[in-house]
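Look over this record before class:
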Amino acid sequence: MIENVVEYFRNLPPKQCATCGEKIEEQHECYGRQCESCDEL
């Protein structure tokens, strides 16, 4: 059962910024929706 959960998170697509569409370099399952550049605006 644990292997299925691990595979699920491994197979998530890269997270993208909701504002500019750039790939966010962080864990895919986190709650942030913007990259650092857009978050500072």
